[in-house]
Design brief:
alpha/beta, four-stranded antiparallel beta sheet, 14 strands
Length: 283
Amino acid sequence: MKSKLFNKILVANRGEIAIRIMRACRELGIATAAVYSDADRNAIHVRYADEAHHIGGAAPSESYLQLDRIVKVAHDCGAEAIHPGYGFLSEKAPFPEACDAAGIRFIGPPASAMRALGSKLAARQLAIDHGVPVTPGSGAVDPATALDAARKIGFPVMLKPSGGGGGIGMKVVESEEQLVAALESSSQAARSAFGDPTVYIERYVRRPRHIEIQIICDTHGNAVHLGERECSIQRRHQKIMEETPSPAVSPEIRAAMGDAAIRVAKAAGYVNAGTVEFIFSEG
């Protein structure tokens, strides 16, 4: 019988994602520890786990974002690993570093990969350096440099915050007259949401397809892709449904996208499961 990697995992999340992780652990015979805030004391994930630990007040800043508190709870309850789920601390480089310092395995990518990919500008440059195609774009822009950069790319353009995601701060700019006001709005939204006002410009692709390649990488330098997901049906930059295989992707394009996704993942030193997103323009 194959031995278990871990006897107990702490799930540093709540709700649906915590339940999914705990269900998988149960199927593998691994015990789970939940964490919860004041507001989630009676939540389903608390009842589903083998044990649960209170970590603070209702606001995420007082509970699910309390990195040191979560790591201490994992250490004190004997968890050998922490699964962050998504959101909250899952993409914060200090989290895996704190786990390493406490002798606890972080189930996710290393801090170095998070830092390499946490900035869209840095991720774009990494992709370019390794022959992965990117949408034509600029470096960081400000009111003094934005117009020249946009003219070189060609209108219409898209303003994008370098940090964060979820479509926050993205602005389509159709003409030169709209640029300065849109830049100010995008930068302010980025500062408020991510603490980083850095904005750059990309060519705006009309009616694109949003296609994602799922990749998985181990700690020995091996990486594979698991095909694509068609994620073009969206509302306010949020996916509504996914389809696989994509009706727009041929076997040749699928292979090329998969190879590109693996190249950028390996270049970043990525470990665990991840997604490489592509903007696909037909013609």
